[in-house]
Amino acid sequence: CDWSSDVCSSDLSSCSPYSSSMWRWIQGQNPERVEPLSESDMAESLNALYGEEPKRGEAIYALAGAGERAVEPLCNLLLECQKSIWTEDAVVMEDSAYALAGIGTPAIPALLKLLEHESDWVRINATFALGEMGGRAKETVPMLVRLLSHPSHSVVRTALDALGQIRVGTHVALTEIRRLLTQDNPTWGDL
Questions:
Q1: Residue 73 Cα distances to 76, 92, 152, 153, 186, angstroms
Q2: Is the C or the N end of the chain the one with fewer CB within 10 Å?
Q3: pLDDT class for 186, splitting at 50, 70, 90?
Q4: Cβ neighbours of residue 85 under 8 Å, at least 6 residues apart?
Q5: 136 half-sphere exposure, CB direction, 13 A CA radius
Q6: d(CA 37, CA 81)
Q7: Residue closest to 60 by CA, chosen among 15, 21, 22, 95
């Protein structure tokens, strides 16, 4: 799809489903639903998550559209990526976290399990995915509130972001947020 011309605005047939959906979204229109993935297309999409754009974006979109069938393989990919890409300037989450967020509520049980994983990076990505679901993840608020006592400032900051995005029922976090604002945490150093 040639984004530099008006081709996409009038004829989306030359665009990938990902590109045409994004174009419709940018214009305030409803995106089209993704076609179901075959097993071979799912495997190809999982492999494309670590490739170049636009294939990565297309893979995230396709896997999110695959729904519950994609949850387990996406969680397995997330478990393989335990090296943090966290910096204080910017954080780039794993593509599998974006796809899990796109799947929505069918991914919540698996993401709740990942919140208990020993790797902070896995926890951060699972927390991010839950936050991206917004109010659809309101049942996860108690688990996210517990993460506000985590020793890693990266986990805490991601949990705060997720709670802010969920917005429903987050009043239960106020005591923990007050504690974060009023008490020093010497293990965090100068942030």
A1: 5, 20, 27, 28, 38
A2: C
A3: confident
A4: 91, 92, 93, 121
A5: 14
A6: 24
A7: 95
